[in-house]
Predict the structure.
Amino acid sequence: MTTVGYGDLVPNSDAAKLLACAFVFTGMALICLTLSKAADYLVDKQELLLVKALHMSQKVPSMEIVKEAETNRTRYKCILVFVFLLVLIITGTIFLAKVEKLDIVDAFYCVCSTITTLGYGDKSFSTKGGRVFAVFWILISTICLAQLFLYVAELNTENRQRALVKWVLTRQTTNLDLEAADLDDDGQVSAAEFIVFKLKEMGKITQEDVSLVMEEFEELDFDQSGTLSASDIVLAQSSR
């Protein structure tokens, strides 16, 4: 299920091979989904504790701590998952050295080849106790590594998005920008039009999103006044 595949235990009969094919696909999907949700839940629970620990020596209001946790959510997730992965690597290395009687280099090599799902097979969990430990350790460590890669990619995307937002908000507005922001072509740009223009530049919304919202607005604007009122909503609902 973890795609490691040491090769020491393999299906021999045709029926076992067919069962293995079905089991691998369904098992990987179910286990990955379940453990990913569990990892997200645990990380979310520990995230606020990490922020509080970082500001333990400072008198920071609770609302500020929550705000910082939300702002740097992905970065704290990366830190927590990395620390957890480091603990798993150390635990696996020590276990292989003590139980499987491997030297430190071979134990670390086996751990790295396992959690990255390479599974060369030259070094593996061979004792009964080692395999019982491996059942849980391999599942947790491989998913943990996958989560770390996911959070690193997410963090990189967030950093690029923040850089784009900063550039949009700090660059000088030109006459061409005003023309592009003038949605109703009346020669003036309202606050709402300017906000929509900036959100489009930031990549928060697209022109298709704006068009869909405008369509809904026009349907609700029953008296075609350009504004919405309670009577418009009542008339629009009764006409449907």
Summary: The two ends are 52 Å apart (CA to CA). Residues 128-170 form the longest helix (43 residues).
